Amino acid sequence: MPTAADVRDSMLSLDGTDDLDPLLRRARSARFVLIGEASHGGHEYYAWRAAITRRLIAEHGFSFVAVEGDGPDCRRVDASVRSDSAADPGDVLEGQRGWPSWLWANEETIEFCRWLRQHNAELPHRQRVGWYGLDAHPLHASIRTVVDYLRDNAPDYVDTALGVHGRGKPLVPAEHLESVTELLTRVHEADAPDDEYAAQDAKLRAGAEGYYNAMLTGGSFGWNTRVAHMVAVLEDLADHHGPNARAVVWAHNTHVGDARATAMAERGEHNLGEFMKDRHGVTDVFTVGFAGGQGEVIAVPVRGEPMRVMPVPPPRPGSLEALLADSGTERGLIFVDEHEWAREKRDQRAIGVVHDDTDDDHWVPTVAAERYNALCWFAATTPVRAVHLDEARRGELPVLR
């Protein structure tokens, strides 16, 4: 059994951006650096992910950033950071008011994108670093469309679709599956881009009907279909940027950490990290995970409700976070693939958009050394600085309910 001293001795300091030097030495030669987050609403994850990415771009010439975000929204951000539009990145991101707005409409992302626009201004246009969404078929916008449809055609099913009465159930009743699939496909066709990525998008649109059908059905099939499309988008972007292109990916730990090192594999679920390592090799893919102790995050207790600051309880006994907390280290960097204690399977916390603050739900059995190359640890977490939080508190933002 590992001791607190074993973990403490494994941990490098993480007080300032200079402390990222060891991480950069290992990650800089990879073609794909996948950087996670332990929740969609924690400041530390967003801020340190941005710090790592700034150095990869500025010091090692990484070509683009691909995020777990809706394609159309990200195209507007991309136009801003590459100065294809006059709009300030902050104005573009503040304009993202649809639920769940806090994922990217936050000060941490605005600061990074403003930095990226300034960095790009010094480069020839063809060398400017882009910002792209991995969800070519917009995920959250699609859910909003589905809920609107259900309100008019199957109102009794709205709570089920939002996860109130049964998480994991299909997003629509079986008798409405065909109609909603056709609706989402039409909406996606209408939102098709007319830009340099139109050809790549057209290839993905050809499979849009199957994608939406899988999403509405739910379960592992829906998850894996989304993952396959994310992989296709990422590889198309890499091909478009040329044989020497290198990418930074921002997504939740459940996407970037190798699924085979978690209980996801037992459910037949794959993910981006697993596929990219299989397709490109372990030397070309470097994965950074995040873990946090107790504190607060931005999230919702039920899908579709207004964002709020929610408590994160202390780590579950025996979990990875409990082991890290017992080390007494406030924050640090660990190359988990180098330490035997990280080869034991332990629960790791995973908070998404929806957060059960009783702490009963968000745990993923994980072998950290096989899931990530490196792990950043924060004993206390604070909420991401969502730009529309006050409006959400006043009930002025659109919600799904």
Automatic annotation (TrEMBL):
Name of protein: Erythromycin esterase
One BP term from GO: response to antibiotic
Pfam families linked to this entry: Erythro_esteras
Record lineage: Bacteria, Bacillati, Actinomycetota, Actinomycetes, Glycomycetales
Membrane-spanning ranges: none
Originating organism: Stackebrandtia nassauensis (strain DSM 44728 / CIP 108903 / NRRL B-16338 / NBRC 102104 / LLR-40K-21)
